[in-house]
Design brief:
This protein is mainly alpha-helical. It has a single domain, classed as 434 Repressor (Amino-terminal Domain). It is 69% helix and 0% strand. It contains 7 helices and no strands. It has helices at 2-17, 21-27, 34-39, 47-56, 61-65, 72-82, 87-101. It starts with a helix and ends with a helix.
Amino acid sequence: MAYEFIRERITALRLKKGVSEYKMSIDLGHSKGYIQSISSGRALPSLQEFLYICEYFEITPQEFFRSKEENTILINSIIKELRNMSDEDLELILNFIKRMKK
């Protein structure tokens, strides 16, 4: 059960990021079939590789297992951009978000 979740979650995050199994394998420094072997159930990543996979998707291990939040990658990208903004711009964005929620 947990193995299936890990395989499916990696696949879902990979597809959301828009990368192929081949590209992700190479980006992580493995042979071209590494991610395909995980997706097919022939292998599971080691703990160290799991942490690299989380880093690749720019998520924490906690976020990896929080599958109900489907936009984790998008939210993290937004937060990354927000960190580079001035306080004045952040105030504007916060007010805009509050207005949208009404």
